[in-house]
Each structure stands twice: as structure tokens, then as C-alpha cells.
Amino acid sequence: MPGPGILDIAPYVGGESKAEGVERPIRLASNESALGPSPKAVAAYRALSGDIHRYPDGSAIELREALGRAHGLDPARIVCGSGSDELIGMLLRAYAGPGGEVLYSRHGFLMYPIGALSVGATPVAAPERDLTADVDALLERVGERTRIVFIANPNNPTGTYLPMSEMRRLHAGLPPHVLLAIDAAYAEFVNRNDFEPGVSLVDRAENVVMLRTFSKIYALAGLRLGWAYCPPAIADVLHRIRGPFNVTAPALRAGIAAVEDTDALRRAQAHNERWLPWLSERLKALGLEPTPSVANFVLPRFPDDSRRNADAAFAFLQSRGILVRKMAGYGLPQHLRITIGTGEEMETVAAVLAEFMGRNE
Ligand SMILES: Cc1ncc(COP(=O)(O)O)c(C=O)c1O
Q1: Per the CB 3.0–4.6 Å rule, which of 8, 137, 194, 325 could disulfide with 337?
Q2: What does residue 54 show for φ and ψ, rounded to 5 degrees?
Q3: What three-state secondary structure class fits 309?
């Protein structure tokens, strides 16, 4: 028999990648980067092909040093993982378990409740306000059994964020036995003065961790690479429980090249800064009420009537070879999540949605 809670898990369903009868669908379902990876990262990945019979460097030291240089951080406090998903799982294994509670925001990233159940802990969802995490609602649900509070900032799938002042207030309200895990998977996309990915909170507390990924702006989702910036004691714990070679050699090589290619990073940021407001405005003009996203995706809300609801829009887009993400699994059945793709893809999706909303039948 599997452990308690395991059979309560509804397996995570990733975004669709195929549309029937369409050879190259427009894939806007998984928040992958529009521009693809840095050419330098691709070259580093290819250059490794003669060496894949070798184990990777289990300590990931060169990547940790590159991350340390790029972000001004102590590499000794960085732990790398096979995607940030693995790091979420490691935190849960180390700090939560049967009898413990894992707190998250109602429309937060699904791997938090799934991961909590996988270690026998109880996921507890706090309601949101305007599809944004609500610090008071989270703090009201903290108790003796709470082990970890996970907060994606900005959040997937809503695209909304908490300013640093709110993150500080959240941390200040937590007892020291509760770990605050700030998942900043989309931090590089955010262009707001009051936002910080969480480094300063990690630096001044024993109970805060920041998670980052190479899957989004660095466009290396297929390689699986993420990292955590931790207080020394937590880094020590994660190193004890991780697999000895948990990050592959191609991921390490490509990750170093990607983090050093600041031009590619800026190109990806500039692309998002152009097309995120562009698509948001188009959706607004169609009456689709997108949330004010600061990430690389938008979350329009569709009308209730069956001809124009989210399911009908999903099917219509799919029939034109456009794949977006359904949101019922996140408790948002009237919404669809659309990733910012290339300019051409954005123009196509806006035109197809305009046609969908304008239909008379
Ligand atoms: C908020 C958030 N955290 C973590 C992840 C997982 O990223 P990774 O590919 O690094 O496992 C995602 C991916 O969608 C995400 O949206």
C-alpha cells in the first residue's frame, strides 16, 4: 500500500503539446520562454555530447559559482535541483510530513498541494483577494502544525504578485518553526519597483528559502534545472537528502552559459515587456478581464454562456492549432492561461480570440 495521502493526489497534468491534424501547433500552454534559449547555452549543451558517459559534478560547484557571481550570492548557500519541482519536493520531504500542514494560496502553483500529499502532510489553502495572495488570510491559517508556507511570487497561474512590503509582513507574522518558501520562478519577468525575488528576506532570517528556475526566462525547461538560495542550515539539510547526481551534466553546462549570457536575458525581458501589455490590452478590449499579470502569461476570464465560455474558447483555439492551458484544476474554470509567445503567435491568438468573441452562432 502506498503511504497515507498518496491516493488522494490528482496527478499533475502538464500543458498540452499536440493539436490533432496540426503539425506545428502554437504552444502557449506551459509558460515556456518565447524566444528559446541563449545560443550559448545550446552550444554548451551540444559540446557536451562526447562526454555523456561521465557522471556530472554532483556538487554543481561551477554552476553555483556562476549563479553566485550573477546574483551577488554566496555559492555555499545555493543548492541546485532537477527543476525547481525537485527542490519543492526536497523541502517537503525535509520539513513536512504526516501530521504537518503545508499552507499555500488558493490559486497557487499545484505542485504545493500535490507535493504536500506525497509526503503525508495536509495541504491547507488560504483564500485570495482579487486572484492575489492575501497575507492576512494566510497568517490566519498558520498554527502549531504548519510546517511550510509556499508562495509563488509572482504566482502561476494568476500572474499577480505581492510587493516586498507584503512579503515582509507575511514573514514577520510567521512563528520561527514555519519555513517560508518563496518560489520566484517568474522573477526575471517582473518589471516593478516594489518587487524583489526574496534574497533580502533569506539573508536576514533562518526560516526563508528562495526558489528559482531555468525553465522560464532561460528557456531550458527540457533540461530540468532549478536552484534554491537558503540559510546555511537549510542548504546543509537539502544537500543531505538530495540524490548524489541530481542535476545532469548537460543541464549544468547549459545553465552556466545561460546565466552568463546577460544579453539573451535582456532580450527575453524586453520581448515580454512589449508583448505582455500588448496581449493584455487586446484581451481587455474583447471584454475578457485579464488579471494584471507581471509574468510571461495572462489569465483572461471568459463569459459564462456556453457559446463563449472558457471550454468553448479552448476548443476554438485548439481547432486553429493554438494550445493554451485550461484552469479548472486550479479552481478557475472560467479562465484560460495564455503564455506570451512570439510576436506572430500573439497576433494570431489575439485575432482568433477576436473571431471567437465576435461569432454570432
Ligand atoms: C510557480 C512555479 N514554480 C515552479 C515551477 C516548476 O519549474 P521547474 O521546471 O523548474 O520544475 C513552475 C513551472 O511551471 C512554476 O510555475
Answers
A1: 325
A2: -90, 145
A3: coil
Report the nearest atom of ligand 1 relative to the CA of 81.
10
What are the pocket residues of ligand 1 if the criterion is a CB atom closer than 6 Å to any ligand atom?
Answer: 31, 83-85, 109, 152, 156, 183, 185, 213, 215, 221, 226
Report CA(185)–ligand 1 centroid distance (Å): 6
Determine the atom of ligand 1 nearest the C-alpha atom of 215: 9
- In order along its 361 residues, the chain shows pLDDT tens digits of 888 888 888 887 777 777 777 778 999 999 988 899 999 999 999 999 999 999 999 999 999 999 999 999 999 999 999 999 999 999 999 999 999 999 999 999 999 999 999 999 999 999 999 999 999 999 999 999 999 999 999 999 999 999 999 999 999 999 999 999 999 999 999 999 999 999 999 999 999 999 999 999 999 999 999 999 999 999 999 999 999 999 999 999 999 999 999 999 999 999 999 999 999 999 999 999 899 999 999 999 999 998 999 999 999 999 999 999 999 989 999 999 999 999 999 999 999 999 999 876 5
Distance 84 CA to ligand 1 centre (A): 6
CA 66, 69, 73, 77 dihedral sign is positive
Give the sign of the dihedral formed by CA 146, CA 76, CA 42, CA 268: positive
- The C-alpha cell at 301 is 476570464
What per-residue string of b and e applies to 50-82 under the rule 16 or more CB within 10 Å gives b? Answer: eeeeeebeeebeebbebbbeeeebebebbbbbb
